[in-house]
Specification:
The chain is an alpha+beta fold. It contains 4 helices and 7 strands; from the N terminus they run H-E-E-H-E-E-E-E-E-H-H. The strands form 2 sheets. Strands 1-2-3-6-7 form a 5-stranded antiparallel sheet. It has a two-stranded antiparallel sheet with strand order 4-5. The longest helix is centred in the C-terminal third of the chain and has 18 residues. The radius of gyration is 16 Å and the shape is globular. Bound molecules: zinc ion. Zinc ion binds next to helix 3.
C-alpha cells in the first residue's frame, strides 16, 4: 500500500468527468487500497480517485476510522472501509438534510451543504460484485459528495457565488502562506 499525493483546488482535474471502470481487477484493487490508506492518513471520511489524479469512477469511504468527526465524538475509530466502483445514485429522497462538509482537496475549509437526506446507490464492490445500498445521515452526504467528484463537481459548487468565492480566496491565501 502507498500514500498517494492529493490534488487541491483549483486544480483543473477537479472539474473533469471521470471514466467508468471496465473491470475490477488487481490494478483497480491496488488503487482502492492506496486510496483507503491515503484517506486514513489525511483523516478523511471519503476520497474520490480524481483527488489522487486518477480520472476513474472510484471512491472510498470510512466513517469510523481516523476521522476528526469520529474523534470529536469520543470514539477510537475502527476501520470499516467501503469501496465503490462505478457508483450510481438510483434513487434519492425528497426530504433534505444539511451537513457541514469539508473536502481533502479544500484543506481547512468547511460549509453547510443541502442534499437529499437518503439515496440508494448501485456500485461494484472490491470483488467486482454488483451491490445496492440505502444510505442515510452522514453516509448519504458523504457518498453524494464523492459521486459529485466523479462528475467534476465539488462541494463549493453547491454554495452561493459569494460563499464559494470566499472559500476559494481563503484557500488561495492559505496555499501562498504555506509555500
Ligand atoms: Zn471532496
Amino acid at each position: 500500500m502507498a500514500i498517494l499525493p492529493l490534488i487541491y483546488s483549483p486544480d483543473p482535474l477537479l472539474k473533469k468527468i471521470s471514466e467508468p471502470v471496465a473491470e475490477v481487477n488487481d490494478e483497480i484493487r491496488q488503487l482502492l487500497d492506496d486510496m483507503v490508506e491515503t484517506m486514513h492518513d489525511r483523516q478523511g471520511i471519503g476520497l474520490a480517485a480524481v483527488q489522487v489524479g486518477v480520472l476513474k469512477r472510484i471512491l472510498v469511504m470510512d466513517l469510523g476510522y481516523g476521522s476528526k468527526r469520529y474523534a470529536e465524538a469520543g470514539g477510537e475509530g475502527e476501520s470499516n472501509p467501503i469501496h465503490m466502483v462505478n457508483p450510481e445514485i438510483v434513487a434519492s429522497s425528497d426530504e433534505e438534510n444539511i451537513y457541514e462538509e469539508g473536502c481533502l482537496s479544500f484543506p481547512g475549509q468547511f460549509a453547510e451543504v443541502i442534499r437529499p437526506k437518503m439515496v440508494t446507490i448501485e456500485y461494484l464492490d472490491y470483488d467486482g460484485n454488483k451491490q445496492r445500498v440505502d444510505c442515510d445521515e452522514l453516509l448519504s452526504t458523504c457518498v453524494q459528495h464523492e459521486i459529485d467528484h466523479l462528475n467534476g463537481i465539488t462541494f463549493v459548487d453547491h454554495l452561493s457565488r459569494v460563499k464559494r468565492n470566499m472559500i476559494l480566496k481563503k484557500l488561495e491565501k492559505q496555499f501562498k502562506h504555506n509555500m
